[in-house]
Amino acid sequence: MKKWWQKSLMIAVAVLTLGVISPNHLIWETLLDEKSHNDSQASTGNDKQYSYDWIDPSELYYSAQPSILETVHQSAEEQAYLKFGSKIGPVISDEFKTAILPNIQQAIDMHLAGLDGEKLRKLAISEKPSGDHAEKIFHIYDTETLKDAIRFHVRTEKKPLEGYFFNFHYHVADDNFQQHIALGDIYWSKNTPPKWLS
């Protein structure tokens, strides 16, 4: 009768746990047959011991060094916050991070995706955003020729009856920096915003 009871219990647990704990699971050896001979299939094979070493999956796919594009993205964000200064930065930082920064990173990726590794390594980001009311946030340029490839700017615009907005845009060398490619706008207020870098 004891065997019949054990098998019924094993089947009931297997059904209730949707097969997670099956009748040949190791748990039954410790719960039901602590001192008697184990009849389960889990103990009938050779007693082999296995040891597993933990390998972090990120080590397989990512190198320890950040990629060139990751470095450009990080530098772009740093230069933008430097341009905003201590007066504008805290006010628009959340909206910039969610609405504008992803567009900047996407524009960088899109325009630099076609370049080979050698050309990418020759690129750098300018490190001095302009102050006062000038537009320059940063430029991505070739370190050998010192020619700009992409120029990222922000312009203060006053819209009638609405107030002041910061218009983020960029220019590319392909059209000799003529076209404004919009990245987005951030509303400031109806009051005149402070100067950049302040």
Question: SSE layout and pairings?
Answer:
Blueprint: H1 2-16, H2 27-32, H3 41-44, H4 57-61, H5 68-112, H6 117-121, E1 123-125, E2 136-142, E3 148-159, E4 163-172, E5 181-187
Notable characteristics:
single chain; 198 residues; alpha+beta; five-stranded antiparallel beta sheet; 6 helices; 40% helix; 20% strand
Task: State the gist of this model.
This protein has 198 residues and is of the alpha+beta class. Helices cover 40% and strands 20% of the residues.
**Portion of residues within helices:** 40-55%
Distance between the termini: 86 Å
Estimate the global geometry from the Cα principal axes: elongated
Alpha plus pi helix count: 6
* Beta-strand residue fraction: 15-25%
Compute the average pLDDT: 78
Strand order of the largest sheet: 1-2-3-4-5
Spans where pLDDT lies below 50 across 5 or more residues: 38-43, 60-64
Structural class: alpha+beta
Number of strands: 5
Rg, Cα atoms, Å? 31 Å
Encode the helix/strand succession as letters.
HHHHHHEEEEE
Q: Work out the oligomeric state of the chains in this entry.
A: single chain
Major sheet summary line:
5 strands, antiparallel
Please characterize this protein's 3D structure.
With 198 residues, the chain is of the alpha+beta class. The protein is 40% helix and 20% strand. The chain is built from 6 helices and 5 strands, in the order ααααααβββββ. It has helices at 2-16, 27-32, 41-44, 57-61, 68-112, 117-121, and strands at residues 123-125, 136-142, 148-159, 163-172, 181-187. It has a 5-stranded antiparallel β-sheet with strand order 1-2-3-4-5. It is elongated and about 90 Å long. The protein starts with a helix and ends in an 11-residue tail after the last strand. The model is unreliable at 38-43 and 60-64 (pLDDT under 50).
